[in-house]
């Protein structure tokens, strides 16, 4: 599959490109800036320009699936949270609908289900992610929403823990590498379509962990 | 009707309470702070505490209709735009659904339909308002969404101009007083249920202006 990764130069995006290539897919790395093209190529991706706040039409052409891994990050203001994490996500979903790219994986965030839960400092971010998730979920696309807990830059271990239902005790941090590997596994498992999966560090091999208990 | 105004001490809320009372309704003024109670009473409203970021359950009890006139305003950060203008609006809609308060009027904003239109500085606000509007519109409530252009503190003139379809040339500013009077007129005209109405300064008596052209 041609898999377009929006936010390909971000923490999870960088881990995702080589894993998609290793799994036999053709990753497309969507970035805002041509200076990032070489880094995308080095990770096995075809670089493309796409600005979630500007020109975006055409960026996703030819893709069979799209992963939204973009985020405004901690160094910008909440205005960018509204423009990138929320509106950029909606634009990405809209672009997929327009181009009939049916498979969509959203990287969301822990407790986006309950944005005004503690801690207070992260509430506005969770509001944006929750609203983006709702839009994704209601779209006609085949969607999977991943809500990882605290992210680390540790090596991937290939194992995670998931919760289809919320359990407050499940708070173990997870590496960006394992989130990325979970994205690959979800793209290859149709059982994850329509699911919102809370994702934690854990001991279950990823392919087994994401199997729905339905 | 008992009409609860969320954001009753804001620019439009203050204009709305006496107009609701004049029209024979019983206004409830929802405010964050008991220090505002006297101001609400002076405008003919029954003051109630309600915190869109905190305790809100029970605030709307007994209401027949709710007007969302709250806004984080220009003096706070974009975090409050996410928490009040977007999440607070969603909480208000949810509270109405829960209590079977079916009539809901949302005070939205000009060009919320196209958030990343110019000018750039207002885009994040429009994203929040658009997402709140979408949530309102999709709810099972009987909703009317008003999208006034630039607001002034001028005296009300009782006349406006509306656009059920977008027309770029219609940019005349409108007084908060006339927006408030339009809310009252909408509550009294079932034709406005399900409509999103762009609102400008103009020369048509409000009751006539809001009559749908369907």
From TrEMBL, chains A, B:
CDD domains: SDR_a5 (cd05243). Residues 7-189 form the NAD(P)-binding domain. It comes from the Archaea. This is SDR family oxidoreductase. It comes from Halocatena marina. The lineage of its organism: Archaea, Methanobacteriati, Methanobacteriota, Stenosarchaea group, Halobacteria.
């Amino acid at each position: 599959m041609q898999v377009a990764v929006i936010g390909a130069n971000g923490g999870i995006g960088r881990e995702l490109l080589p894993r998609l290539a290793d799994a036999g897919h053709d990753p497309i790395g969507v970035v805002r800036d041509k200076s990032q093209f070489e880094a995308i190529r080095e990770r096995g991706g075809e670089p493309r320009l796409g600005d979630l706040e500007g020109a975006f039409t055409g960026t996703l052409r030819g893709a069979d699936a799209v992963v939204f891994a973009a985020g405004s990050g901690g160094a910008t203001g909440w205005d960018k949270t509204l423009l990138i994490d929320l509106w950029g996500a909606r634009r990405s979903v809209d672009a997929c609908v327009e181009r009939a790219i049916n498979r969509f994986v959203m990287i969301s965030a822990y407790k986006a289900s309950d944005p005004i839960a503690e801690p207070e400092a992260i509430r506005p971010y969770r509001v944006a992610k929750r609203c983006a998730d709702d839009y994704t979920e209601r779209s006609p696309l085949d969607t999977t929403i991943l809500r990882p807990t605290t992210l680390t830059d540790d090596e991937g271990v290939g194992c995670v823990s998931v919760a289809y239902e919320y359990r407050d005790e499940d708070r173990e941090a997870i590496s960006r590498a394992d989130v990325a590997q979970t994205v690959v596994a979800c793209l290859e498992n149709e059982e994850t379509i329509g699911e919102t999966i809370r994702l934690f560090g854990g001991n279950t091999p990823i392919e087994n962990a994401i199997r729905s208990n339905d």
